[in-house]
Write a structure and sequence with these properties.
CBS-domain, Arc Repressor Mutant, subunit A, six-stranded antiparallel β-sheet, 439 residues, Udp-n-acetylmuramoylalanyl-d-glutamate--2,6- Diaminopimelate Ligase, Chain: A, domain 1, 4 domains, alpha/beta
């Protein structure tokens, strides 16, 4: 269902204009049949990319493009401030921005594939990994409040590289950087739903049956469709989950989800994307005065950030790297996700890091609470009382079961199992419940 967005179309149109051409909001809106607001945002983005320039008394002109800046906006100085670090050497290089972040949680040989000049290497007391990173021109962020050995400092000074020492452990440091990156993403120019949504929506009417769903699914290749009445008012959303086991003659209104995730055209994509990720929504229905005007998928959101933002996309921040390979599994009894253990999740022994495992389990528990009760919660205690080594490349399934949901607190049991059903880990999450969220 994902298609090129209006925003992407406008940027491509501007980029293909002849050098020296005038560009205006009215011109773009007329040529591409978009709103002036959408045209304005695209022109501002084109200006940021270096495609156009606003010249006083002349207007906005298409110019020769300049090389885009790196996607990271954080400088090494800002990173040092975020992690409360001490700069051991390389003070004159602190205004540089790292090209990417690397967590040294692997053996040296595979680590070489990810090291590159100007990539900030986050590492603990691994002397060999520190030297290897410096050899590849990567500045160091050393965690755990550990002293740096003299030969490492000398080598960094010879190569003019930065060393930052943080008192926090690696997991805390990556979380702090991730938080800062996400805050930067929010501060960027807003992308609205209307810039990303698919307007040519395939839908079913309230008179349709499950058999009609099967026909439309077969012809379109999709499985999720809004259900509307004769006035195009949205009544629900129907997917393969709702039709499973239903007779072909069953009305779609009898099995559809009558409370889909509904958004407006002027909603911020940043805001709705967080809800979609945390609550497991794959699609959102876009309405205006309750009438269907479009649909947006999580894939559309990801592609929008890949095309429009200079900031990391979903899957490039630490938390999202962990969850990027997981997918939601329909389960009537427990909220379940499944996925593969990747190199980003392992420790130096090649098995899933305990910190990453707890993060995944905690997230699944949190999502389960949000999805079923629309409640927010703060984790107070997490007890991991069963654990086996989980090697890289293994497929796992993580399930959360709500044991107790009271007014002020809740208990959630989380299990990690192999796809064959072998129990690999088990934990109990205790959380304090906050205010109820709006649906």
């Amino acid at each position: 269902m994902s298609q090129i967005t209006k925003h992407q179309q406008i940027l491509s149109f501007i980029e293909n204009l002849a050098i020296g051409s005038k560009v205006s909001v009215r011109f773009i809106a007329k040529e591409l049949d978009v709103s002036e607001g959408t045209a304005y945002r695209a022109i501002k983005e084109a200006e940021a990319k270096g495609f156009v320039r606003s010249i006083p008394k002349v207007g906005t002109i298409r110019i020769e493009g300049v090389k885009e800046r790196l996607i990271e906006d954080l400088t090494l100085k800002e990173v040092a401030q975020i992690v409360e670090g001490i700069v051991t050497c390389g003070l004159e290089q602190l205004d540089q921005s790292p090209s990417k972040f690397i967590v040294a949680a692997m053996e040296l040989e595979p680590m070489k594939r990810y090291l590159e000049e100007n990539a900030l290497c986050i590492v603990g007391n691994r002397h060999d990994a520190q030297l290897l990173a410096l050899e590849h021109g990567a500045p160091l962020l050393i965690t755990g409040g550990l002293e740096v050995e003299d030969d490492v400092v000398r080598y960094a000074r010879e190569k003019g590289l930065v060393i930052i020492q943080s008192p926090y452990d690696t997991f805390a440091v990556t979380t702090m950087i991730n938080r800062a990156l996400y805050d930067r993403l929010i501060e960027k120019e807003l992308i609205l739903v209307e810039d990303v949504m698919v307007r040519d929506v395939q839908y079913l009417t309230d008179k349709a049956t499950v058999g009609d769903w099967h026909e439309l699914s077969q012809s379109s290749g999709h499985s999720r469709f809004p259900v509307v009445d004769q006035d195009m008012n949205v009544m629900g959303l129907i997917t393969a989950v709702e039709v499973a086991g239903a007779e072909s003659s069953t009305p779609v209104t009898g099995v559809m989800n009558s409370q889909p995730f509904v958004v407006g055209r002027d909603d911020s994509v940043t805001h709705i994307s967080r809800i979609m990720v945390w609550e497991g929504w794959e699609n959102a229905v876009v309405t205006e005065q309750s009438k269907l005007i479009g649909i947006i998928s999580l894939q559309d959101v990801i592609e929008a950030y890949q095309q429009v933002q200079k900031q990391p996309q979903f899957g490039e921040t630490v938390d999202n790297l962990i969850l990027s390979g997981f997918r939601y599994v329909e389960n009537s009894e427990k909220l379940t996700i499944e996925g593969e253990i990747t190199r980003f999740m392992i420790n130096e022994f090649g098995s899933m890091s305990c910190g990453v495992l707890v993060t995944v389990m905690n997230m699944v528990g949190y999502i389960a609470l949000r999805k079923q009760y629309r409640l927010d919660a703060i984790t107070e205690n997490f007890t991991l009382y069963q654990l086996q080594q989980i090697e890289v490349g293994r497929e796992i399934r993580v399930s959360a079961q709500l044991l107790l949901v009271a007014k002020k607190h809740c208990n959630i049991e989380i299990e990690v199992a192999s796809k064959e059903g072998e129990l690999l880990a088990k934990g109990l999450m205790t959380a304090r419940i906050g205010d109820k969220k709006l649906a």
